[in-house]
Amino acid sequence: MSTRPANLGQLRDSGWESVPVKDEIRRNAIDRIRAGKPLVEAVRGYEHTVLPQLENALLAGHDVVFLGERGQAKTRMIRSLTDLLDEWMPVVAGSEINDDPYHPVSHHARELVADKGDDTPITWVHRSSRYGEKLATPDTSIADLIGEVDPIKVAEGRYLSDELTLHYGLVPRTNRGIFAINELPDLAERIQVGLLNVLEERDVQIRGFKVRLPLDVVLFASANPEDYTNRGRLITPLKDRFGAQIRTHYPLDVETEMAIMDQEAELVSGSGLTVVVPPFMTEVVATFSHLARQSPHINQRSGVSVRLSVSNLETLVANATRRALRMGESEVVPRVSDLEALVASTSGKVEMDTFDDDGGRVLERLLSQAILTVFRDRIDPGRLAGIVAAFDQGRVVDAGENVAAGDEVAVAADIPALGEVVADLVGPDQVPGVVASAVELVLEGLHLAKRLNKDTDRFGTASAYRLR
Q1: Has residue 400 got a pLDDT over 90?
Q2: In sequence order, which residues have a C-beta less than 8 Å from that of residue 85 and are 6 or more positions away?
Q3: Distance (Å, rounded) from C-alpha 222 to C-alpha 237?
Q4: What residues have CB less than 8 Å from 455, skipping those under 6 apart?
Q5: pTM > 0.85: yes or no
Q6: Domains: count for the chain
Q7: What mean pLDDT is reported for the chain?
Q8: Do residues 279 and 241 share a domain?
């Protein structure tokens, strides 16, 4: 920073050029697109849907509203767009609204430049400080967004007609940057009107003052599509002023959902424990979310967030950890018997469309369907006859929370047909816990396919599989 210009004269001599923030974003977006880099990091599943539309909007210099249900990375995308700003930006020293040294707009900056000329002090602002965000709530006021008279400054002796008595709101303070409003339709209509000038005329007006601030701001917003399009909670002139409307969505396939879960989940670690999550167990959790998004018993307008998948994976590992600690095992590997914990972690994150207290049973059925789907996708049905035949003599196999991993590994060794299927399922990873997890998946899959019976205790913690 010591090598950067410290006053207006040095800034002019350095050759630095002032450009509107939309042009700045466009220039950096072009560099990324040309280099084959994504505009937004750490967001999966939008490569062929949302991100091309976002590229169009930024290249066109549009303000953007993202429409989508909860948990679709709308806010994450907006926040990450600060990476498209230049790393450092010069402002007039002491400015509250990031005044451009070449084109100051606030009273403070104009007076300072007029008084000191090329000796006007310059400070440099990092791009992380050029982002502002407001969660729209019904009590949000114009003072919050635009500004209001500061009574402290009036008490200090300034006149009400003095522009210096103003306390700037969030939008002016994000001048020459990016401002985001989450849940835009929740703003009262009279407050929405206050944004009209920001989006079109690019200025703000504060009541009681003849003040016009030609702001340079890119505005992003997020909204639920139901609120935005159908309920009349957003005034038409404000809709009209957004240049781009981009519809987000949940992951279109299970593989993308699994990748997001692996990226976002914070799993138990430390304390001498080793956590291993077999891919087929992650797939069960992801499939469960996908089935929930198709269920007529779950309110789809409120959505089934990807956060549900992440939370369920964390809950699954937590239940496996609790089981491992009680069994004295250092290896934490989720099994089918741990999936029962997902009913409780899911019920608080979805809204049921049932008229009775049947939500738990709906989730249990969806979970069983997810297990059966993964079982059928991963295991050749032609190889199951030998496993079923091993139960012909009345054999019973125990599974559940109170069964050690080594005991379930022994079952795979005693039934060669089962051992072969399990070996193909786990691949070269013959960790005992993973083998035990695969054994439970095969047995539960055979039960759900109506090939084996299962007796479960009243607590749902122990199961016995036998021939039907």
Answers
A1: no
A2: 21, 24, 25, 28, 127, 130, 177, 178
A3: 17
A4: 463, 464, 466
A5: yes
A6: 2
A7: 88
A8: no
Alpha-carbon separation of residue 96 from 83, 124, 178, 192, 219 (angstroms): 22, 13, 16, 24, 19
Measured between alpha carbons, how far is 129 from 138 in angstroms, rounded to an integer?
A: 27
Q: Quick one: tokens of 402?
A: 């109170």
CATH number of the domain within which 24 lies: 3.40.50.300
Q: Are residues 218 and 276 both part of a single domain?
A: no
Note whether residue 305 is domain-resident.
yes
The answer to whether position 274 is within a domain reads yes
The domain of 411 spans 254-467
Last residue of a domain, one of 212, 247, 282: 247
How many CA atoms lie within 13 Å of 228's alpha carbon, on the beta-carbon side? 21
2 occurs within a structural domain? no
Confidence (pLDDT) at 168: 85
Domain boundary, last residue among 247, 273, 297? 247
d(CA 380, CA 421): 9
Element (H, E) at 178: strand 177-182
CB-based contacts of 155: which residues, under 8 Å, 6+ apart? Answer: none
Of 58, 22, 24, 21, nearest in space to 38 by CA: 58
**Which residues are within 8 A (CB) of 408 and not within 5 positions of it... i.e. 6 or more apart?**
399, 435, 436, 439, 440
Q: Read off the pLDDT of residues 350-376 as tens digits, 9 standing for 90 and up.
A: 888 766 556 788 999 999 999 999 999
Tokens, residue 117: 């000329």
Task: Report how far residue 372's alpha carbon sits from residue 448's, in angstroms, rounded to the nearest whole number.
Answer: 6
